[in-house]
Write a sequence for this structure.
């Protein structure tokens, strides 16, 4: 297979991100890109790794279980960006480098127990529900402070920031509102003593708005890897 489209997509995405940074008066170096490889096979991920990418976002733990052993020689760090079931904590503790979707203390308890067993620690972002959509996960903004306080007792979990998925809509005002809310929550938490410098927000369709609202990390799938089948979204 010819995966040269990955190199051109990756270059194009970086150029678009840099342009959005310039428009927002920000430095491109402040905004990382997390390639989201969910649903794409190991050969595609291997080709992306050959471009120098080494962190990949996946939304299903089962998929990381399948891919990780086949890509063990690529030095990949797997980042979980999908719903975190406590019954998958063992695999997450073993395979993931980072989890961006922690939103309940029970998940932290399950992960901590497994991480102790593995002698590992995980970088963690807390997912916040900034969208009114039923389908979106994340802790309600009002519960964030208590969750962060609760996380402090787990030294296997290093809370580093917040993550959100904006409302799925063409209404830019609403999408921006979600991103702005995450930034304002980060600032409010900082005032309470919770330093959470990272903001993971923005995807292929809305990253320019996320950059304008202060994203430090964009999760980009289709703009790099191409369209996924509808069933896999
Ligand atoms: C799939 C996914 C992405 C990437 O979406 P694209 O629109 O393909 O860029 C980002 N974040 C999460 C949580 C995802 O599940």
């Amino acid at each position: 297979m010819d995966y040269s489209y990955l190199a051109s997509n990756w270059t194009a995405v970086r150029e678009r991100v840099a342009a959005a940074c310039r428009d927002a008066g920000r430095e491109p170096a402040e905004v990382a890109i997390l390639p989201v490889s969910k649903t794409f096979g190991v050969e595609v991920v291997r080709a992306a790794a050959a471009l120098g990418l080494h962190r990949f976002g996946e939304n299903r733990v089962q998929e990381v279980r399948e891919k990780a052993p086949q890509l063990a020689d690529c030095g990949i760090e797997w980042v979980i960006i999908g719903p975190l079931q406590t019954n998958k904590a063992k695999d997450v503790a073993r395979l993931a480098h980072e989890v961006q979707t922690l939103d309940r203390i029970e998940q932290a308890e399950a992960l901590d127990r497994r991480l102790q067993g593995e002698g590992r620690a995980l970088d963690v972002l807390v997912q916040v529900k900034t969208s009114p959509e039923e389908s979106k996960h994340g802790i309600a903004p009002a519960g964030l402070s208590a969750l962060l306080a609760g996380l402090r007792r787990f030294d296997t979990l290093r809370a580093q920031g917040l993550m959100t998925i904006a409302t799925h809509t063409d209404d830019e005002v609403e999408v921006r509102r979600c991103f702005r809310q995450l930034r304002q929550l980060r600032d409010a938490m900082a005032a309470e003593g919770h330093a959470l410098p990272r903001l993971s927000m923005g995807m292929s369709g809305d990253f320019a708005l996320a950059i304008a609202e202060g994203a430090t990390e964009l999760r980009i799938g289709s703009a790099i890897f191409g369209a996924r089948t509808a069933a896999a979204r």
Observations:
- The mean pLDDT is 96.
- Residues 4-225 form a domain with the TIM Barrel fold (CATH 3.20.20.10).
- The pocket of pyridoxal-5'-phosphate is lined by residues 36, 38, 59, 81-82, 165, 203-205, 219-223 (CB under 6 Å).
- The first helix runs from residue 4 to 23.
